[in-house]
Amino acid sequence: MMAGPQNGVQAAMFVGHHARAGTSSAILDVRINTLLASSYGVPVVLASGDEAACAEFSALAPRAVTVPVK
């Protein structure tokens, strides 16, 4: 999980994530990192993971490029 970003961070990229618990075929929650980055004003620009995670990232960070890897 992401900790608070340091000063000067301009963007966040998340690699290898799974969608939140309870999502079909997913085991972990990705919302926490996306929401934490957003709370610091850091945009998510790239996210990769399973198809469910990419769909969730797209809903939370519509400008992020997503790359489904499984």
SSE inventory with pairings:
Blueprint: E1 12-17, H1 31-39, E2 44-49, H2 51-60, E3 65-68
Parallel strand pairs: 1-2, 2-3
Protein architecture, described:
The protein has one domain. 27% of the residues lie in helices and 23% in strands. It is built from two helices and three strands, in the order βαβαβ. It has a three-stranded parallel β-sheet with strand order 1-2-3. The chain is globular. The mean pLDDT is 79.
Rg value: 11 Å
| Tally of structural domains | 1
Q: What is the oligomer described by this structure?
A: single chain
Topology order in helix (H) and strand (E) letters:
EHEHE
User: Which structural class best describes the helix and strand composition?
Assistant: alpha/beta
For the largest sheet, list the strands in their spatial order.
1-2-3
Helix content: 25-40%
Question: Which whole number gives the mean pLDDT?
Answer: 79
Strand fraction equals 15-25%
Q: Span between N and C termini?
A: 21 Å
Number of strands: 3
Q: Report the uncertain regions.
A: none
Which structural traits does this protein have?
alpha/beta, 3 strands, single chain, 70 residues, three-stranded parallel sheet
In brief:
This protein has 70 residues and is of the alpha/beta class.
